[in-house]
């Protein structure tokens, strides 16, 4: 099972309450608040630029089954349809040319040894993914309409499967995306 840590925003408490209610109904574990929705990005004129259809509402939290013995770790460049009912799994990977929710933009391994604690892992994952954001998108995260979250080891996955990989995942909080967000600069 992997944890995730979105960027904190003013309405995180409301989003956390909504996510907790959804998790209670679905019986899944993990997840946390989604960031607030920034303004809609300007439309791109380049033919290879990502396109996004009309907003479809809040993006569901990607989850892994609590019965997973080894966490699913998507590869850099994978595009994910996190809205599928099956949760985050190999069947979440879709061609980037199709509408999708998320894209893995970076990945790295944490140092081995003993589990440093949930907060330490979440903070290290967030900080390292934040530092890789601008190189992928083309503008600083603070200036971007796009958001990111992390998939990172939990106490359970660290000890039972030796998980050390952190995946940095970018998403547009207002729309699905068609194409890669690499160099999107919005």
UniProtKB/TrEMBL annotation:
Record keywords, A-Z: Signal
Signal peptide (UniProt feature, chain positions): 1-24
Region (Disordered): 27-76
Domain Septum formation-related, chain residue ranges per copy: 71-168
InterPro entries xrefs: Septum_form
Coiled-coil positions: none
PROSITE patterns xref list: PROKAR_LIPOPROTEIN
Superkingdom, natural source: Bacteria
Bias kind Low complexity: ranges: 43-58
UniProt keyword annotation of Metal-binding present: no
Pfam families: Septum_form (PF13845)
Protein name per its UniProtKB record: Septum formation-related domain-containing protein
Record organism: Agromyces ramosus
């Amino acid at each position: 099972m992997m944890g995730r840590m979105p960027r904190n925003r003013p309405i995180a408490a409301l989003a956390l309450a909504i996510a907790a209610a959804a998790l209670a109904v679905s019986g899944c574990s993990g997840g946390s608040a989604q960031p607030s929705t920034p303004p809609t990005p300007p439309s791109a004129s380049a033919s290879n630029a990502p396109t996004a259809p009309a907003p479809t509402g809040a993006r569901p939290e990607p989850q892994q089954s609590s019965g997973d013995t080894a966490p699913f770790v998507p590869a850099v460049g994978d595009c994910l349809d996190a809205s599928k009912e099956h949760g985050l799994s190999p069947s979440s990977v879709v061609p980037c040319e199709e509408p999708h929710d998320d894209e893995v933009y970076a990945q790295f391994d944490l140092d081995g040894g003993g589990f440093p604690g949930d907060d330490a892992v979440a903070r290290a994952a967030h900080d390292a993914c934040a530092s890789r954001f601008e190189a992928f998108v083309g503008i600083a995260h603070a200036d971007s309409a796009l958001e990111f979250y992390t998939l990172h080891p939990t106490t359970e996955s660290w000890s039972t499967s030796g998980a050390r990989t952190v995946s940095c995942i970018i998403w547009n909080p207002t729309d699905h995306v068609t194409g890669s967000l690499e160099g999107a600069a919005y």
